């Protein structure tokens, strides 16, 4: 029997497993499909909320801590696995920001580099970008990571660790209750590969977490929010850094692939793509980078974000279930917040001093509706 059983093999689940294994714990991670192939794969990989000054301070605290982790995490995984997560720190250009004064006030309060720049500056940094208006914002410290490769590297590292057991294509259908009592403690889970037991259970199921926790009589206010994206295969170097305009962004990869995102759709668990979204994303992309009108769209895909009130994740033990924990509800910022949110939960699981105040994230009865 493992010390910990983690449900969900996305970036949140895999980082949790990595930190527990680093601490000498025996961990079993179960994933209904393939590790890293849901929201962790589908996102863009920007290591910051798109407009961080518009978020609750609870999100900002996690984001600030996580941002500083990615450079060393990427280097670690490259050395351990030979897989490069392609962390790039080339900054972000914000075009058409209608609350720039608020953004600058936020940056000064937090000591975050952010400045107002003009058209000449934007043209020098990104000659191919179509400037909108006479000013923009520049955040030089922002980084991005190639999230499918980050997930691949995390999976490879976990597979090589003797403390970790990975079980893919292993869907959890229910909980095993102590002495058949459906209150107080869960001894394990029922899966498509048979029963699995552990001392403590951590639910990192993203958009699917609420469905699973409903079986414990807990209503987790997390829902799937669909996001469609496209990618152009463009000449290398057409754009070097992340550019954001009117809520849509372009993210460059080292091989010339340019990601464009994303839509926000309330469509349940539907992950189909459509021509309406394609046209909308192309229009946004070409308004930022007109040369894309001559480049082919290489890919279109969709993923499901775990939407939650104010985008604040639920991190901690479930009321009435002292050995069942949750880390879900990161909305658009799962990869952004993953290092900090997983570290915060592992601090709690192992009795360590928390890196930040855990209170805003705990799944208390005030934040949950019990069925």
UniProtKB/TrEMBL annotation:
InterPro entries cross-referenced by the UniProt entry: FAD-dep_OxRdtase, FAD/NAD-bd_sf, Gly_oxidase_ThiO
Pathway info: Cofactor biosynthesis; thiamine diphosphate biosynthesis
Domain FAD dependent oxidoreductase, residue spans: 3-347
Statement: the UniProt record of this protein carries the keyword Oxidoreductase: yes
Key words of the record: Oxidoreductase, Thiamine biosynthesis
GO MF annotations, alphabetized: glycine oxidase activity
EC number(s) per entry: 1.4.3.19
Keyword match Oxidoreductase: yes
Annotated Gene3D superfamilies: D-Amino Acid Oxidase, subunit A, domain 2, FAD/NAD(P)-binding domain
Protein name, per record: Glycine oxidase ThiO
Organism annotation: Vreelandella neptunia
Gene transcribed to yield this protein: thiO
